[in-house]
Structures are given as structure tokens and as C-alpha cells.
């Protein structure tokens, strides 16, 4: 590719060429070969070629007005080719990829936004489902605990029922055995006779009734002992409760049964504790001792007797 320096050199050579032509014409006029003609008389004729200053200016002007060659664009120098890197030896067992991968499609912005929105909705749906599963598991666990507690409560009630039933059966067996023993003692021993002499008048236990017999006093003593031991804070007023208990000689109560009683469990328990708290009266009442006695409990006593 031609450079600016080459253009200047061409112009200079053109100017020198024209100048050389002019100079050669001048020199040619100095060295003219003589003609081989016959000599003639007279002075020889001489001719010379002369250039004026105007001619030189016109020639110089013509050289300057000559068309200049178009400037040539600078040629870009191509860098020398770089040596190719030497291939590294393959160290992996995986085969080299011989087919180029297909170009990936540029994702559409709108479709990508829709995909992101769907992914977000799906994630929110999964989070809600997970939360619902956790709540359901908690509800199931609570129900399982409640069922287990109910089973344990029923087992405890069953055990208590079995224990009470066993105690009642044991008490009934003891009652039957004591009744049999009392019957045997009654058959073996005759009733004692009272002395004809009258004892000194002493205050006797009673219920302000008209029956002054020993049996009436015995029943009144039993009733007084039961009422003295009775805690009436948990029983309703003016409600009667008939209770039948079994005792052995000495006054120890071994069994309690309620025949007609409108008290609740707490009220009945208070009566049973009163009967079992202390032995019933026995000394002095051996002749009228009763193994089974029925009492009517009511509070307050004065109001119940009206």
C-alpha cells in the first residue's frame, strides 16, 4: 500500500524529469555536430535555442497544475499470526466432546417473568400446605394425648372399682363369719338375769323419748355416738338418710350399707366415717347387743324431730 512518502517521491521525480529534459535541450544546443558539407565562402551561420523566463514559469506552472494522485488510505498492518498453543494431553477418562453444543435460546423477558411468578406462587402454595400439615399433625397429636389420657383415666377407675369391690366382698365375708360366730355364742350362753335390787338413780343416756327400756337406751346411745362423730358440713339439711351397719362384740363396725339415702357420695362418706371412727357402745349393753343396726341420720336433729 502506497504511503504519503511514496507520493512525495513520485512528485519529486516528475519535477526532476521535466527539469532534466529542459537541461538536455540546453546542453544539446551547445554540442552541435558539424555538417559534412562543402565549405562555402563567407562567415558561417550559427543558431542557438534560448528559453525565456516566461517559458520557465509556464513550465513550472504546468508541473504544479498537473493532477495529483489520490491519497492512498494508510494500510493497516496485520499483526503476525500467533503460534497455536500446544494441546495438553488428556488426563480424564471422559471422552472429548466432538460435537459443538447447540446455542442456547435467549430467554424471553415476559416468559421469564411469568415463570418466576408461577414459581413464587408454587412456593407459597407449598408453604401453606406445609403449614396445614403441621397444624393437622398437632391436632392429631393433641387428640392422641387426649385419647391416651382417657384410656388411663378409665383404667384407674376400673382399678379403683375392682379394689372397692374386693374390699366389699372381704367385708361381707367377715360380716358373715362374725354373724355366725355371734349366733354360736348366743346359743352357747344364756341371757343374764337382772338383780331385783334397784340401783341408785343416775342420769341415763336417751333421746328424750318415753321408752325407758334397756334396748331403747342402747339404740339412743348408738345414735348419740354416730351423731357425735358426724361432720355435717357437707350434708344437706332436713334430708333423712337410712343407714344399716354391722358390728361385732366390742362395738367395732365392720360394714356399712345405705338403704334409703338421698345424699351424694360425699354425704354418705361422712356418715360412714362417723360410724367407723370410734367403737359403738357395748359395755353395759351386752344383753341387748345387736350385730346389725339401722339408724336414720338427719341434720339438724332438733328440726328433723319436729
From TrEMBL:
Residues 56-95, 184-210 are annotated as: Disordered. Residues 188-205 have a biased composition (Low complexity). It comes from the Bacteria. Keywords: Coiled coil, Membrane, Transmembrane, Transmembrane helix. The keyword Cell division does not apply. The keyword Transmembrane applies. Residues 68-88 have a biased composition (Pro residues). Residues 111-181 form a coiled coil. This is Protein TolA. The chain crosses the membrane at residues 12-33.
